[in-house]
Amino acid sequence: MFAGKSWAARAIAVVGLAMSGFHLYVAFFGPPDAYVLRSTHLGFALTLAFLILPWRATAAAERPRWYDLAMLVGALAAAAYPIVFNDYIVNRMAYVDPLRAMDFVLGVTMIVLLLEATRRAVGLALPLTAAAFLVYAVFIAGFDLEMLLDQLYMTTEGVFGIPTSVSATYVMLFILFGTLIERTGTGRLFMDFAMSLTGHSAGGPAKVACITSGLFGSVSGSAVANVMTTGTFTIPMMKRIGYRPGFAGAVEAVASTGGQIMPPIMGAAAFVMAEFLGVSYLSVAAFALLPALLYYVALFAAVHFEAKRTGMQGLPRSELPVMTDVLLERGHLFLPLVIIITVLLLGYSAPFAALCGIVSVIPTALLRRSTRDYVRLGSLLEALVAGARNTVSVALACACAGIVIGVITLTGLGIDFTGLVLDASRNSLILALVLTMIAGIILGMGMPTTPAYIVQVALLVPAIVNLGIAVEAAHMFVFYYAILSAITPPVAMAVYAANGISRASLWDSGLTALKLGATGYIVPFMFVFGPSLLLIGHWSDVALSMLTAITGVVCLAGGLTGYLLGPAAIWQRLLLVTAALVLIKPGLGTDLIGAVCLGLVIATQLWLRPRDASVTPPLAAGDVNPGRRVGPDT
User: Fold this and answer.
1) 210 vs 154 pLDDT, higher one
2) If DSSP states are collapsed to H, E and C, what string results for 178-205?
3) Distance separating alpha carbons of residues 552 and 631, to the nearest angstrom
4) Is the confidence at residue 45, as pLDDT, over 90?
5) I want to staple 552 with a disulfide (CB 3.0 to 4.6 A). Which of 267, 406, 583, 630 is the partner?
């Protein structure tokens, strides 16, 4: 692992192994003091950031310069101070006892270097947002630097707050789990399973992308990483059978983005939500289950209708794996996921479930010869290093978001912002939700999901909760739009990543992604007014809501695509969209209206089908000839 590598690469490997080893030790034997755990976690992340990430994006990575090393030393000193002087920090009276000179120096050092490391890891948007809040606290709210540093560095209300705690206790372990199962061939299992299941059907590769990206995304929790992992296989396959590049890229982007709302693991923000709500992670997964199902059913239906409308076929069965062979050779790799779900269902904590999953990965891979070769000491050590590296951006984003939360708490800005939202909406719930949606998408466009969600919880959730929304629904509402920003132009990071593979234009893929992901934009409004979509309420209400909502999202996909049982006329598409909106919203009256609209469309399409049987549906601009197979160079 170390042979032939530069000193920097060896240092990165040592730090990565130490970081993963520390968190596994904590998971086995229990966490130390909050300051010790969070400071150590952040210290590791800062160290890796200054070793791995260059000053400029164009510079060579993993070749730290003297100024990187100088910043690394300063970051280590600032992170180590709460550990070394833990008794002093814990026993002092916050906001009363004056700060020492060293508190000032290291507090400023921590904030400045954290902003710089976050800039390198996730871009300018989040550190600029945090800097703007710092400026507000000092120059507008009128707080002096001592009070601000006391809040942000000397208490657990700032840099070392709840977001950093969640990153240290939950996220790191699940990222390690995802990295380990990826290195044992689970990614190939997901792909082969999806190909054997749907690859032969109309538009098969697009359906493969839906299933594979949903499975992989539920483990990885990162839309962009999911696109780059699965999209390299699915996008060329979609183009091969005739999907235009923009549509192929959009399918992969939308499918990959949905992984953050798909249980059992979801994205890092879901663990933060559990902490904010004071509920188990299993409860958050339960809230997300039905909306995630609706999201993927709508996407699956959309790609099916598009394939039918344009006459595309699937891949030849001779090119596809056989389901029984896939399950016999690699099906056992599902076992770690089953173990995690089982442990959660038994009522244990999410960190313990992640630990059980991690412990089960190696014995599971050893069960069969087809996966036994993956279990080598070198590959396992590389997986531990990769897990630590993959945690860096999340850890830094959480700590930087802690700056924003600390300022909001100190200045009371959240209360002021709640008043502004209520005044702007004039106490109209619909208008307040629309304003919250717009703010959430804008915030999410420039930030990773986790800090975008955290900022919205501080600024927006109190406003809509004051209008009578259930707290769980309010958190899920902002969570959704923080995620959907990844497919919302002009800053649609998942679409950008997919376009790097599909070679489509941003607006072609972006607008198509909006259409394919339309369910994601509508469902949050529906579960605000009908919490049964979050599995809250009597089982009969939940079952009826699930049935009608699934029917509704299929109608929405048909209306937007222009196909149901056959090509749909404009008036039929309008009826389908109307049916979708009223069926997704729980309620007997709206369900009856939706059933009538859907019934009219089905009846007219069945009645007109014999008359139109010989008519080939018109092709949309950019589509290829029906049934034509397109080679990889087309």
Assistant:
1) 154
2) HHHHHHCCHHHHHHHHHHHHHCCCCCHH
3) 36
4) yes
5) 583
Residue 58: which pLDDT band, with cuts at 50, 70 and 90?
A: low
Bridge partners (DSSP) of residue 563 are: 567
Find, among 484, 458, 488, 451, the residue nearest to 126 by Cα.
Answer: 451
Query: Where do we find the tokens 């299993």?
Result: 282
Residues 6+ apart with CB under 8 A from 559: 568, 573, 574, 575, 576, 577, 579, 580
Instruction: Tell me if residue 567 falls in helix, strand or coil.
Output: strand
For residue 173, which of 281, 80, 278 has the smallest C-alpha distance?
281
Q: What is the DSSP string of 485-544?
A: GGGSSSS-HHHHHHHHHH---HHHHHHHHHHHTHHHHHHHHHHHH-GGGGT-S-HHHHHH
Q: At a CB cut-off of 8 Å and minimum separation 6, what does 379 contact?
A: 183
CA angle, residues 31, 398, 224, in degrees to nearest 5:
115
Question: 509-545: per-residue pLDDT in tens?
Answer: 888 888 888 888 888 888 888 888 888 878 888 888 8
Q: Are 469 and 436 in contact (CB under 8 A)?
A: no
Q: Which sign does the torsion angle of CA 547, 552, 558, 560 carry?
A: negative
